[in-house]
Protein backbone atom coordinates (compact mmCIF):
# COMPACT_ATOMS: atom_id res chain seq x y z
CA UNK A 1 0.00 0.00 0.00
CA UNK A 2 1.36 3.41 -0.96
CA UNK A 3 -0.24 6.60 0.30
CA UNK A 4 -0.50 9.47 -2.18
CA UNK A 5 -1.58 13.03 -1.44
CA UNK A 6 -3.63 14.22 -4.40
CA UNK A 7 -5.45 17.56 -4.43
CA UNK A 8 -5.08 17.71 -0.67
CA UNK A 9 -6.62 14.29 -0.02
CA UNK A 10 -4.85 11.10 0.99
CA UNK A 11 -5.37 8.00 -1.13
CA UNK A 12 -4.12 4.53 -0.23
CA UNK A 13 -3.19 2.80 -3.45
CA UNK A 14 -2.70 -0.94 -3.86
CA UNK A 15 -0.32 -1.00 -6.85
CA UNK A 16 3.24 -2.08 -7.64
CA UNK A 17 5.81 0.57 -6.60
CA UNK A 18 7.03 1.03 -10.19
CA UNK A 19 3.53 1.81 -11.51
CA UNK A 20 3.48 5.21 -13.19
CA UNK A 21 1.36 7.82 -11.42
CA UNK A 22 -0.74 8.32 -14.56
CA UNK A 23 -1.96 4.70 -14.49
CA UNK A 24 -2.91 4.99 -10.82
CA UNK A 25 -4.77 8.26 -11.43
CA UNK A 26 -6.78 6.89 -14.32
CA UNK A 27 -7.24 3.22 -13.44
CA UNK A 28 -7.29 3.12 -9.65
CA UNK A 29 -8.64 6.55 -8.72
CA UNK A 30 -10.82 7.34 -11.77
CA UNK A 31 -9.21 10.75 -12.19
CA UNK A 32 -9.32 10.80 -15.97
CA UNK A 33 -8.27 14.42 -16.55
CA UNK A 34 -4.63 13.55 -17.23
CA UNK A 35 -4.36 11.71 -20.55
CA UNK A 36 -2.11 8.94 -21.84
CA UNK A 37 -0.40 10.23 -24.99
CA UNK A 38 3.04 8.74 -25.57
CA UNK A 39 3.92 7.15 -22.24
CA UNK A 40 7.50 8.38 -22.71
CA UNK A 41 7.47 11.88 -21.28
CA UNK A 42 7.48 13.42 -24.73
CA UNK A 43 4.02 14.90 -25.34
CA UNK A 44 2.76 16.42 -22.09
CA UNK A 45 -0.84 15.12 -22.23
CA UNK A 46 -0.26 13.51 -18.79
CA UNK A 47 1.09 16.68 -17.11
CA UNK A 48 0.21 17.12 -13.43
CA UNK A 49 1.82 19.21 -10.69
CA UNK A 50 4.23 17.76 -8.15
CA UNK A 51 5.16 20.06 -5.26
CA UNK A 52 4.13 22.99 -7.46
CA UNK A 53 6.07 21.99 -10.58
CA UNK A 54 4.70 20.62 -13.86
CA UNK A 55 5.79 17.01 -14.43
CA UNK A 56 4.98 14.10 -16.77
CA UNK A 57 2.93 11.65 -14.70
CA UNK A 58 3.54 8.82 -17.20
CA UNK A 59 7.21 8.50 -16.20
CA UNK A 60 6.89 8.90 -12.44
CA UNK A 61 6.69 5.66 -10.44
CA UNK A 62 4.47 6.00 -7.38
CA UNK A 63 7.29 4.75 -5.15
CA UNK A 64 8.78 8.26 -5.44
CA UNK A 65 5.65 10.03 -4.25
CA UNK A 66 4.86 9.41 -0.57
CA UNK A 67 4.98 12.72 1.29
CA UNK A 68 4.74 14.81 -1.89
CA UNK A 69 1.88 17.08 -2.99
CA UNK A 70 0.27 16.04 -6.26
CA UNK A 71 -2.22 18.32 -7.97
CA UNK A 72 -4.30 17.24 -10.97
CA UNK A 73 -6.78 19.15 -13.09
CA UNK A 74 -9.56 17.77 -10.89
CA UNK A 75 -8.06 19.92 -8.14
CA UNK A 76 -8.39 23.19 -10.06
CA UNK A 77 -12.16 23.41 -10.39
CA UNK A 78 -15.32 21.72 -11.58
CA UNK A 79 -17.44 21.97 -14.72
CA UNK A 80 -19.78 24.23 -12.76
CA UNK A 81 -17.03 26.32 -11.17
CA UNK A 82 -13.89 26.16 -13.31
CA UNK A 83 -10.58 27.44 -12.01
CA UNK A 84 -9.07 30.65 -13.39
CA UNK A 85 -6.83 28.89 -15.92
CA UNK A 86 -9.61 26.52 -16.97
CA UNK A 87 -11.99 29.47 -17.47
CA UNK A 88 -9.37 31.26 -19.59
CA UNK A 89 -9.02 28.17 -21.82
CA UNK A 90 -12.84 28.05 -22.19
CA UNK A 91 -13.05 31.78 -22.94
CA UNK A 92 -10.38 31.50 -25.63
CA UNK A 93 -11.90 28.27 -26.99
CA UNK A 94 -8.37 26.86 -26.80
CA UNK A 95 -9.42 23.23 -27.18
CA UNK A 96 -10.04 21.62 -30.54
CA UNK A 97 -9.97 17.86 -29.92
CA UNK A 98 -9.06 18.64 -26.33
CA UNK A 99 -6.73 15.71 -25.71
CA UNK A 100 -3.71 17.86 -24.79
CA UNK A 101 -5.66 20.49 -22.89
CA UNK A 102 -5.64 19.07 -19.36
CA UNK A 103 -1.84 18.88 -19.61
CA UNK A 104 -1.64 22.38 -21.09
CA UNK A 105 -3.81 23.76 -18.26
CA UNK A 106 -1.65 22.10 -15.60
CA UNK A 107 1.58 23.39 -17.12
CA UNK A 108 0.12 26.90 -17.37
CA UNK A 109 -1.12 26.63 -13.77
CA UNK A 110 2.36 25.68 -12.55
CA UNK A 111 3.91 28.55 -14.50
CA UNK A 112 1.47 31.16 -13.16
CA UNK A 113 1.72 29.93 -9.58
CA UNK A 114 5.45 30.67 -9.46
CA UNK A 115 5.52 33.52 -11.98
CA UNK A 116 2.27 35.51 -12.06
CA UNK A 117 3.54 37.96 -14.73
CA UNK A 118 5.42 35.88 -17.28
CA UNK A 119 6.85 37.49 -20.40
CA UNK A 120 5.84 36.13 -23.80
CA UNK A 121 9.21 34.35 -24.02
CA UNK A 122 8.75 32.77 -20.61
CA UNK A 123 5.28 31.52 -21.56
CA UNK A 124 6.57 30.00 -24.80
CA UNK A 125 9.60 28.43 -23.10
CA UNK A 126 7.48 26.95 -20.34
CA UNK A 127 4.78 25.58 -22.64
CA UNK A 128 7.26 24.11 -25.16
CA UNK A 129 7.28 20.53 -23.79
CA UNK A 130 3.53 20.13 -24.29
CA UNK A 131 2.44 19.21 -27.80
CA UNK A 132 -0.88 19.95 -29.51
CA UNK A 133 -1.63 18.07 -32.68
CA UNK A 134 -4.63 20.14 -33.73
CA UNK A 135 -2.55 23.30 -33.88
CA UNK A 136 -4.43 25.55 -31.50
CA UNK A 137 -1.17 26.92 -30.11
CA UNK A 138 -2.11 30.55 -30.69
CA UNK A 139 -5.33 30.12 -28.72
CA UNK A 140 -3.51 28.24 -25.97
CA UNK A 141 -1.01 31.10 -25.68
CA UNK A 142 -3.88 33.60 -25.57
CA UNK A 143 -5.51 31.55 -22.82
CA UNK A 144 -2.32 31.57 -20.73
CA UNK A 145 -2.03 35.36 -21.15
CA UNK A 146 -5.70 35.78 -20.24
CA UNK A 147 -5.31 33.60 -17.15
CA UNK A 148 -2.33 35.72 -16.04
CA UNK A 149 -4.42 38.89 -16.43
CA UNK A 150 -7.36 37.41 -14.54
CA UNK A 151 -5.15 36.23 -11.70
CA UNK A 152 -3.68 39.71 -11.42
CA UNK A 153 -7.18 41.25 -11.19
CA UNK A 154 -8.25 38.69 -8.61
CA UNK A 155 -5.16 39.40 -6.55
CA UNK A 156 -5.73 43.17 -6.59
CA UNK B 1 69.07 56.41 6.53
CA UNK B 2 66.17 58.57 5.55
CA UNK B 3 68.12 59.79 2.56
CA UNK B 4 69.02 56.27 1.51
CA UNK B 5 65.43 55.13 1.99
CA UNK B 6 64.24 57.88 -0.34
CA UNK B 7 66.81 56.79 -2.91
CA UNK B 8 65.64 53.17 -2.78
CA UNK B 9 62.06 54.34 -3.05
CA UNK B 10 62.98 56.55 -5.99
CA UNK B 11 64.84 53.74 -7.75
CA UNK B 12 61.93 51.42 -7.10
CA UNK B 13 59.60 53.99 -8.61
CA UNK B 14 61.75 54.19 -11.73
CA UNK B 15 61.77 50.40 -12.09
CA UNK B 16 57.98 50.22 -11.67
CA UNK B 17 57.44 53.09 -14.11
CA UNK B 18 59.80 51.43 -16.56
CA UNK B 19 57.97 48.12 -16.24
CA UNK B 20 54.63 49.86 -16.73
CA UNK B 21 55.98 51.64 -19.81
CA UNK B 22 57.43 48.42 -21.23
CA UNK B 23 54.17 46.58 -20.60
CA UNK B 24 52.17 49.41 -22.12
CA UNK B 25 54.33 49.11 -25.22
CA UNK B 26 53.48 45.42 -25.42
CA UNK B 27 49.82 45.90 -24.63
CA UNK B 28 49.08 48.97 -26.74
CA UNK B 29 47.63 48.44 -30.20
CA UNK B 30 46.55 51.14 -32.63
CA UNK B 31 43.01 51.46 -33.88
CA UNK B 32 42.36 50.46 -37.47
CA UNK B 33 40.47 53.12 -39.42
CA UNK B 34 36.71 52.55 -39.66
CA UNK B 35 35.23 51.81 -43.06
CA UNK B 36 31.76 52.03 -44.53
CA UNK B 37 30.32 48.52 -44.65
CA UNK B 38 31.17 46.94 -48.00
CA UNK B 39 28.23 46.19 -50.32
CA UNK B 40 27.07 42.58 -50.18
CA UNK B 41 27.73 42.13 -53.88
CA UNK B 42 31.36 43.11 -53.43
CA UNK B 43 32.03 39.58 -52.14
CA UNK B 44 32.06 36.59 -54.47
CA UNK B 45 29.41 33.95 -53.68
CA UNK B 46 32.11 31.24 -53.51
CA UNK B 47 34.01 33.15 -50.87
CA UNK B 48 30.83 33.72 -48.85
CA UNK B 49 29.89 30.06 -49.17
CA UNK B 50 33.29 28.93 -47.88
CA UNK B 51 32.92 31.40 -45.04
CA UNK B 52 29.48 30.01 -44.16
CA UNK B 53 30.91 26.49 -43.80
CA UNK B 54 33.80 27.71 -41.64
CA UNK B 55 31.50 29.87 -39.50
CA UNK B 56 29.39 26.75 -38.84
CA UNK B 57 32.48 24.65 -38.00
CA UNK B 58 33.69 27.51 -35.79
CA UNK B 59 30.31 27.79 -34.04
CA UNK B 60 30.25 31.59 -34.40
CA UNK B 61 26.46 31.63 -34.06
CA UNK B 62 26.48 29.40 -30.97
CA UNK B 63 28.20 31.97 -28.75
CA UNK B 64 27.24 35.13 -30.62
CA UNK B 65 23.47 34.53 -30.36
CA UNK B 66 21.48 35.12 -27.16
CA UNK B 67 18.56 32.95 -26.08
CA UNK B 68 15.63 34.09 -28.25
CA UNK B 69 18.10 36.47 -29.90
CA UNK B 70 18.79 37.08 -33.54
CA UNK B 71 21.69 35.13 -35.05
CA UNK B 72 25.14 36.74 -34.65
CA UNK B 73 23.71 39.76 -32.79
CA UNK B 74 25.52 38.74 -29.58
CA UNK B 75 24.38 39.16 -25.98
CA UNK B 76 24.83 35.57 -24.83
CA UNK B 77 26.38 35.42 -21.34
CA UNK B 78 29.49 33.23 -21.29
CA UNK B 79 30.30 32.17 -17.74
CA UNK B 80 34.05 32.04 -17.04
CA UNK B 81 35.84 31.46 -13.73
CA UNK B 82 36.68 35.18 -13.87
CA UNK B 83 33.17 36.52 -14.37
CA UNK B 84 30.51 36.71 -17.06
CA UNK B 85 31.60 37.88 -20.49
CA UNK B 86 28.89 38.74 -22.99
CA UNK B 87 29.40 37.74 -26.61
CA UNK B 88 29.35 40.78 -28.86
CA UNK B 89 27.36 41.63 -31.96
CA UNK B 90 29.19 40.38 -35.07
CA UNK B 91 26.61 41.48 -37.62
CA UNK B 92 27.72 44.32 -39.92
CA UNK B 93 25.91 47.03 -37.93
CA UNK B 94 28.21 50.07 -37.93
CA UNK B 95 27.54 51.28 -34.38
CA UNK B 96 27.03 48.09 -32.37
CA UNK B 97 28.48 45.36 -34.63
CA UNK B 98 31.48 44.96 -36.93
CA UNK B 99 30.13 47.06 -39.82
CA UNK B 100 33.03 49.51 -39.61
CA UNK B 101 35.65 46.73 -39.54
CA UNK B 102 37.90 46.27 -42.55
CA UNK B 103 39.06 42.79 -43.44
CA UNK B 104 42.40 43.79 -41.93
CA UNK B 105 40.71 44.63 -38.62
CA UNK B 106 38.78 41.34 -38.66
CA UNK B 107 41.98 39.41 -39.41
CA UNK B 108 43.75 41.10 -36.50
CA UNK B 109 40.89 40.15 -34.16
CA UNK B 110 41.01 36.53 -35.32
CA UNK B 111 44.82 36.30 -35.20
CA UNK B 112 45.70 38.46 -32.19
CA UNK B 113 42.48 39.04 -30.26
CA UNK B 114 42.47 42.82 -30.76
CA UNK B 115 39.29 44.63 -31.80
CA UNK B 116 39.13 47.34 -34.43
CA UNK B 117 39.67 50.12 -31.91
CA UNK B 118 42.84 48.48 -30.55
CA UNK B 119 41.22 46.99 -27.45
CA UNK B 120 42.16 43.48 -26.26
CA UNK B 121 39.44 40.84 -26.56
CA UNK B 122 39.09 38.17 -23.88
CA UNK B 123 40.43 34.76 -24.93
CA UNK B 124 36.96 33.30 -24.44
CA UNK B 125 36.96 34.25 -28.13
CA UNK B 126 39.12 31.34 -29.29
CA UNK B 127 41.66 33.45 -31.19
CA UNK B 128 44.48 31.17 -29.97
CA UNK B 129 42.86 28.71 -32.42
CA UNK B 130 41.68 31.14 -35.11
CA UNK B 131 45.22 32.48 -35.33
CA UNK B 132 46.05 29.24 -37.20
CA UNK B 133 43.42 29.79 -39.92
CA UNK B 134 44.58 30.72 -43.42
CA UNK B 135 44.17 34.26 -44.77
CA UNK B 136 41.77 32.88 -47.34
CA UNK B 137 39.52 31.28 -44.75
CA UNK B 138 39.55 34.33 -42.49
CA UNK B 139 38.56 36.38 -45.55
CA UNK B 140 35.75 33.88 -46.16
CA UNK B 141 34.40 34.20 -42.62
CA UNK B 142 34.65 37.99 -42.93
CA UNK B 143 32.71 37.91 -46.21
CA UNK B 144 30.06 35.64 -44.67
CA UNK B 145 29.55 37.86 -41.63
CA UNK B 146 29.59 41.11 -43.62
CA UNK B 147 26.83 39.77 -45.88
CA UNK B 148 24.47 39.04 -42.94
CA UNK B 149 21.72 41.55 -42.13
CA UNK B 150 23.05 44.35 -39.91
CA UNK B 151 21.28 44.21 -36.54
CA UNK B 152 21.48 46.87 -33.90
CA UNK B 153 22.22 45.21 -30.56
CA UNK B 154 24.51 46.17 -27.71
CA UNK B 155 25.90 43.44 -25.46
CA UNK B 156 25.35 43.99 -21.71
CA UNK B 157 28.49 45.02 -19.75
CA UNK B 158 30.76 42.19 -18.57
CA UNK B 159 30.98 41.36 -14.88
CA UNK B 160 34.74 40.80 -14.77
CA UNK B 161 36.32 42.14 -11.55
CA UNK B 162 39.46 44.26 -11.22
CA UNK B 163 42.22 43.81 -12.36
CA UNK B 164 41.01 41.55 -15.18
CA UNK B 165 38.57 44.23 -16.33
CA UNK B 166 41.68 46.19 -17.37
CA UNK B 167 42.00 44.76 -20.82
CA UNK B 168 45.74 45.37 -21.04
CA UNK B 169 46.20 42.45 -18.64
CA UNK B 170 45.23 40.20 -21.54
CA UNK B 171 48.48 41.21 -23.24
CA UNK B 172 50.26 39.34 -20.44
CA UNK B 173 48.07 36.28 -21.02
CA UNK B 174 48.87 36.46 -24.73
CA UNK B 175 52.62 36.61 -24.02
CA UNK B 176 52.28 33.40 -22.04
CA UNK B 177 49.76 31.44 -24.06
CA UNK B 178 49.14 32.82 -27.56
CA UNK B 179 51.28 30.92 -30.05
CA UNK B 180 51.05 32.78 -33.33
CA UNK B 181 51.55 30.97 -36.61
CA UNK B 182 49.36 29.39 -39.25
CA UNK B 183 48.41 25.70 -38.94
CA UNK B 184 50.87 23.29 -40.61
CA UNK B 185 50.00 20.05 -42.36
CA UNK B 186 51.54 16.76 -41.24
CA UNK B 187 53.07 15.36 -44.44
CA UNK B 188 52.96 11.82 -43.06
CA UNK B 189 49.15 11.93 -42.93
CA UNK B 190 46.49 11.84 -45.65
CA UNK B 191 44.89 14.97 -47.10
CA UNK B 192 41.60 14.10 -45.37
CA UNK B 193 43.29 13.70 -41.96
CA UNK B 194 45.02 17.04 -42.45
CA UNK B 195 41.75 18.72 -43.44
CA UNK B 196 40.25 17.37 -40.24
CA UNK B 197 43.22 18.49 -38.17
CA UNK B 198 42.96 21.99 -39.66
CA UNK B 199 39.20 22.28 -39.08
CA UNK B 200 39.55 21.04 -35.50
CA UNK B 201 42.54 23.17 -34.52
CA UNK B 202 42.25 26.38 -36.53
CA UNK B 203 38.47 26.75 -36.80
CA UNK B 204 36.39 24.35 -34.70
CA UNK B 205 38.47 24.89 -31.52
CA UNK B 206 37.36 21.52 -30.11
CA UNK B 207 40.19 21.76 -27.59
CA UNK B 208 38.53 24.76 -25.94
CA UNK B 209 36.28 22.23 -24.17
CA UNK B 210 37.92 18.84 -24.70
CA UNK B 211 41.44 19.84 -23.55
CA UNK B 212 42.12 20.48 -19.85
CA UNK B 213 42.83 24.10 -18.93
CA UNK B 214 45.40 25.56 -16.54
CA UNK B 215 44.65 27.97 -13.68
CA UNK B 216 44.62 30.90 -16.12
CA UNK B 217 42.14 29.10 -18.38
CA UNK B 218 44.64 28.41 -21.16
CA UNK B 219 44.59 24.97 -22.76
CA UNK B 220 47.36 22.68 -21.55
CA UNK B 221 49.43 22.13 -24.71
CA UNK B 222 50.88 18.99 -23.21
CA UNK B 223 47.51 17.28 -22.91
CA UNK B 224 45.57 17.89 -26.11
CA UNK B 225 42.06 16.40 -26.03
CA UNK B 226 42.67 14.67 -22.69
CA UNK B 227 39.18 15.74 -21.57
CA UNK B 228 38.04 19.09 -20.23
CA UNK B 229 34.86 20.75 -19.15
CA UNK B 230 32.26 23.21 -20.35
CA UNK B 231 29.30 24.89 -18.69
CA UNK B 232 28.85 22.33 -15.94
CA UNK B 233 29.49 19.28 -18.14
CA UNK B 234 32.55 17.10 -18.59
CA UNK B 235 33.81 17.08 -22.17
CA UNK B 236 35.19 13.56 -22.64
CA UNK B 237 38.72 12.74 -23.77
CA UNK B 238 39.00 12.38 -27.55
CA UNK B 239 42.20 10.35 -27.62
CA UNK B 240 43.55 7.20 -25.98
CA UNK B 241 41.77 8.07 -22.71
CA UNK B 242 38.32 8.09 -24.36
CA UNK B 243 35.81 6.48 -21.99
CA UNK B 244 33.81 5.01 -24.86
CA UNK B 245 32.93 1.33 -24.40
CA UNK B 246 32.40 0.69 -28.12
CA UNK B 247 35.40 2.05 -30.07
CA UNK B 248 34.61 5.25 -31.96
CA UNK B 249 34.82 4.56 -35.69
CA UNK B 250 34.95 7.14 -38.50
CA UNK B 251 31.37 6.21 -39.41
CA UNK B 252 30.08 6.51 -35.84
CA UNK B 253 31.82 9.85 -35.31
CA UNK B 254 30.56 11.25 -38.62
CA UNK B 255 26.99 10.25 -37.81
CA UNK B 256 27.25 11.58 -34.25
CA UNK B 257 28.69 14.92 -35.29
CA UNK B 258 26.06 15.46 -37.98
CA UNK B 259 22.96 14.23 -36.11
CA UNK B 260 23.81 14.65 -32.43
CA UNK B 261 23.24 10.96 -31.84
CA UNK B 262 25.21 7.75 -31.98
CA UNK B 263 23.52 4.42 -31.39
CA UNK B 264 26.69 3.07 -29.75
CA UNK B 265 27.53 6.05 -27.52
CA UNK B 266 24.63 8.34 -26.80
CA UNK B 267 23.24 11.77 -27.53
CA UNK B 268 25.11 15.06 -27.78
CA UNK B 269 24.11 16.94 -24.65
CA UNK B 270 24.95 20.19 -22.89
CA UNK B 271 27.09 22.52 -24.98
CA UNK B 272 27.77 19.74 -27.53
CA UNK B 273 24.16 19.75 -28.74
CA UNK B 274 24.59 23.12 -30.45
CA UNK B 275 27.90 22.02 -31.97
CA UNK B 276 26.28 19.06 -33.72
CA UNK B 277 23.40 21.26 -34.81
CA UNK B 278 25.88 23.54 -36.58
CA UNK B 279 27.75 20.60 -38.13
CA UNK B 280 24.50 19.29 -39.60
CA UNK B 281 24.77 22.07 -42.19
CA UNK B 282 28.45 21.43 -43.01
CA UNK B 283 29.34 19.29 -46.07
CA UNK B 284 29.65 15.64 -45.05
CA UNK B 285 33.19 15.47 -46.43
CA UNK B 286 34.37 18.06 -43.90
CA UNK B 287 32.62 16.38 -40.97
CA UNK B 288 34.12 13.09 -42.11
CA UNK B 289 37.57 14.68 -42.15
CA UNK B 290 37.07 15.75 -38.52
CA UNK B 291 35.94 12.20 -37.72
CA UNK B 292 39.02 10.71 -39.43
CA UNK B 293 41.29 12.99 -37.43
CA UNK B 294 39.75 12.09 -34.06
CA UNK B 295 39.27 8.39 -34.85
CA UNK B 296 43.03 8.20 -35.54
CA UNK B 297 43.69 9.23 -31.92
CA UNK B 298 41.07 7.02 -30.30
CA UNK B 299 41.87 3.59 -28.90
CA UNK B 300 41.00 0.71 -31.20
CA UNK B 301 40.52 -2.39 -29.13
CA UNK B 302 38.94 -5.29 -30.97
CA UNK B 303 35.17 -4.81 -30.82
CA UNK B 304 33.80 -6.87 -27.97
CA UNK B 305 30.45 -8.50 -27.90
CA UNK B 306 28.61 -6.42 -25.34
CA UNK B 307 26.61 -8.47 -22.96
CA UNK B 308 23.29 -6.69 -22.65
CA UNK B 309 22.53 -6.65 -18.94
CA UNK B 310 19.22 -8.26 -18.23
CA UNK B 311 16.76 -5.61 -17.15
CA UNK B 312 15.27 -6.74 -13.92
CA UNK B 313 12.89 -4.48 -12.11
CA UNK B 314 14.84 -4.49 -8.89
CA UNK B 315 14.90 -0.70 -8.88
CA UNK B 316 11.39 0.76 -8.99
CA UNK B 317 12.64 4.22 -9.96
CA UNK B 318 14.46 2.86 -12.99
CA UNK B 319 11.57 0.58 -13.86
CA UNK B 320 8.96 3.32 -13.64
CA UNK B 321 10.88 6.34 -14.91
CA UNK B 322 13.62 5.08 -17.27
CA UNK B 323 12.73 1.67 -18.65
CA UNK B 324 9.94 2.96 -20.88
CA UNK B 325 12.68 4.35 -23.13
CA UNK B 326 15.87 2.59 -22.00
CA UNK B 327 14.51 -0.95 -21.58
CA UNK B 328 15.45 -3.62 -24.12
CA UNK B 329 12.13 -3.61 -25.95
CA UNK B 330 11.28 0.05 -25.53
CA UNK B 331 10.07 1.87 -28.64
CA UNK B 332 13.16 4.08 -28.55
CA UNK B 333 15.59 1.18 -28.55
CA UNK B 334 13.76 -0.39 -31.46
CA UNK B 335 14.54 2.81 -33.33
CA UNK B 336 18.24 2.03 -32.91
CA UNK B 337 18.96 3.72 -29.59
CA UNK B 338 21.74 2.48 -27.42
CA UNK B 339 21.74 0.28 -24.43
CA UNK B 340 22.80 2.27 -21.39
CA UNK B 341 25.66 -0.24 -21.10
CA UNK B 342 27.26 1.61 -24.03
CA UNK B 343 26.43 5.11 -22.82
CA UNK B 344 29.45 7.41 -22.59
CA UNK B 345 27.89 9.19 -19.61
CA UNK B 346 27.20 6.00 -17.65
CA UNK B 347 30.75 4.75 -18.31
CA UNK B 348 32.53 8.06 -17.64
CA UNK B 349 34.97 8.47 -14.76
CA UNK B 350 32.73 11.06 -13.12
CA UNK B 351 28.99 10.98 -12.51
CA UNK B 352 28.73 14.60 -13.66
CA UNK B 353 27.30 14.14 -17.16
CA UNK B 354 24.91 11.36 -16.14
CA UNK B 355 23.54 13.60 -13.39
CA UNK B 356 23.21 16.59 -15.73
CA UNK B 357 21.38 14.41 -18.23
CA UNK B 358 18.94 12.93 -15.70
CA UNK B 359 18.21 16.27 -14.03
CA UNK B 360 17.87 18.44 -17.10
CA UNK B 361 17.25 16.00 -19.95
CA UNK B 362 17.70 16.99 -23.56
CA UNK B 363 15.51 19.89 -24.60
CA UNK B 364 13.57 19.97 -27.83
CA UNK B 365 15.61 21.72 -30.50
CA UNK B 366 13.07 24.18 -31.81
CA UNK B 367 12.71 23.68 -35.53
CA UNK B 368 15.34 20.92 -35.68
CA UNK B 369 15.28 17.16 -35.48
CA UNK B 370 17.33 15.74 -32.66
CA UNK B 371 17.39 13.51 -29.62
CA UNK B 372 15.09 14.36 -26.72
CA UNK B 373 14.83 13.31 -23.11
CA UNK B 374 12.61 14.70 -20.36
CA UNK B 375 14.43 16.09 -17.32
CA UNK B 376 13.71 14.75 -13.83
CA UNK B 377 14.92 17.68 -11.70
CA UNK B 378 11.40 18.36 -10.37
CA UNK B 379 10.61 14.68 -9.88
CA UNK B 380 13.57 13.11 -8.08
CA UNK B 381 14.62 14.21 -4.61
CA UNK B 382 18.34 14.13 -3.82
CA UNK B 383 18.20 10.69 -2.11
CA UNK B 384 16.13 9.36 -5.04
CA UNK B 385 18.67 10.76 -7.52
CA UNK B 386 21.58 9.22 -5.63
CA UNK B 387 19.81 5.89 -5.56
CA UNK B 388 19.06 5.76 -9.29
CA UNK B 389 22.50 7.08 -10.31
CA UNK B 390 24.19 4.40 -8.18
CA UNK B 391 21.90 1.81 -9.71
CA UNK B 392 22.76 2.93 -13.26
CA UNK B 393 26.49 2.73 -12.58
CA UNK B 394 26.45 -0.65 -10.90
CA UNK B 395 23.95 -2.20 -13.28
CA UNK B 396 25.17 -0.91 -16.65
CA UNK B 397 28.89 -0.19 -16.25
CA UNK B 398 31.89 -2.25 -15.22
CA UNK B 399 33.55 0.99 -14.04
CA UNK B 400 34.38 1.60 -10.40
CA UNK B 401 31.51 2.97 -8.27
CA UNK B 402 31.26 6.74 -8.49
CA UNK B 403 32.38 8.57 -5.35
CA UNK B 404 31.42 12.07 -6.52
CA UNK B 405 27.64 11.66 -6.84
CA UNK B 406 26.66 13.90 -3.91
CA UNK B 407 29.00 16.76 -4.85
CA UNK B 408 28.16 16.61 -8.56
CA UNK B 409 24.46 16.57 -7.75
CA UNK B 410 24.80 19.64 -5.54
CA UNK B 411 26.68 21.50 -8.30
CA UNK B 412 24.24 20.48 -11.02
CA UNK B 413 21.22 21.51 -8.94
CA UNK B 414 22.87 24.85 -8.14
CA UNK B 415 24.06 25.77 -11.62
CA UNK B 416 21.30 24.28 -13.75
CA UNK B 417 21.73 22.68 -17.15
CA UNK B 418 23.48 24.18 -20.14
Notes on the protein architecture:
Chain A is an alpha+beta fold and 156 residues long. Chain A has 5 helices and 5 strands. Chain A has 2 domains: 2-75, Roll (Ubiquitin-like (UB roll)); 84-155, Orthogonal Bundle (DNA polymerase, domain 1), CATH 1.10.150.120. Chain A is 37% helix and 13% strand. Chain A has a 5-stranded mixed sheet, with helices on both faces. In chain A, β3 and β4 form a beta hairpin. The longest helix of chain A has 19 residues, at 137-155. Chain B is mainly α and 418 residues long. Chain B folds into 3 domains: 40-177, Cytochrome Bc1 Complex, Chain D, domain 2, CATH 1.10.760; 191-297, no CATH class; 316-415, no CATH class. Chain B is built from 17 helices and 6 strands. Chain B has helices at 2-27, 45-57, 60-63, 103-112, 127-130, 135-146, 169-177, 191-204, 207-210, 250-259, 271-279, 284-297, 316-326, 331-334, 352-360, 382-396, 405-415; strands spanning 77-80, 83-86, 228-230, 233-235, 261-262, 266-267. In chain B, the strands form 3 sheets. In chain B, strands 1-2 form a two-stranded antiparallel ribbon. In chain B, α10 (250-259) packs across α11. The mean pLDDT of chain B is 91. The A-B interface holds A 16-20, 39-42, 50-51, 53-56, 58-64, 121, 128-129 and B 68, 313, 316-317, 319-322, 324-325, 331-332, 363-364, 366, 372-374, 378-381, 384.
Amino acid sequence: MITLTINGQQHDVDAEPDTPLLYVLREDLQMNGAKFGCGLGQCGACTVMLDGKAVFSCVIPISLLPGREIKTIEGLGTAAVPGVVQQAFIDEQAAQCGYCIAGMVMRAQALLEHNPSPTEEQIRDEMTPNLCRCGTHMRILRAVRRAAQTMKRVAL
Amino acid sequence: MAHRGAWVLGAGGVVVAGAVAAFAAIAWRPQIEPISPPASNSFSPEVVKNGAVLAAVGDCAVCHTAAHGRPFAGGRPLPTPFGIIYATNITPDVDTGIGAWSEQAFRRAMRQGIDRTGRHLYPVLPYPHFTRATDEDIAGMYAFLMTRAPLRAEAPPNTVPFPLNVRATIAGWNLLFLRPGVWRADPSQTAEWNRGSYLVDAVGHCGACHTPHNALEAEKDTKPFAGGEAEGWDAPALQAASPAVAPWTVEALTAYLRTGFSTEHGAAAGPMAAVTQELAAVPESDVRAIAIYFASMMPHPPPMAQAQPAIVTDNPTFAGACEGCHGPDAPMTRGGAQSLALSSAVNARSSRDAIQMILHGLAWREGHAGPYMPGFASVLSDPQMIDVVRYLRSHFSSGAPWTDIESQLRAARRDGGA
